[in-house]
Design a protein that fits this description.
Elements lengths: L1 H19 L1 E2 L22 E2 L4 E7 L5 E7 L6
Antiparallel strand pairs: 1-2, 3-4
């Protein structure tokens, strides 16, 4: 199913973000809602020093999963 495929793609994007130490922007986000107090990435990727990333996935039938990836010493 496409939802499961999208979840796998999200995990790949998370691993690429760790490898490149760059967070991708949110697609098509140009103007957040007023009062929305989150650090959103708009327009261009942003570098990060983070060594962990979280991928949350939902699928058909209520199945959910959370994957935490961490940059190890072999990635240096």
């Amino acid at each position: 199913h496409a939802m499961g495929g999208a979840n796998a793609l999200e995990a790949v994007v998370c691993l690429l973000a760790l490898r490149e130490r760059t967070l991708p922007p949110t697609l098509n986000l140009t103007q957040p809602s007023p009062g929305f107090d989150l650090d959103l990435i708009m327009g261009a990727p942003r570098g990060t020093g983070s060594s962990q990333v979280l991928s949350l996935a939902a699928s058909m039938g209520g199945a959910t999963s959370a994957l935490i990836f961490e940059r190890g010493p072999a990635w240096a």
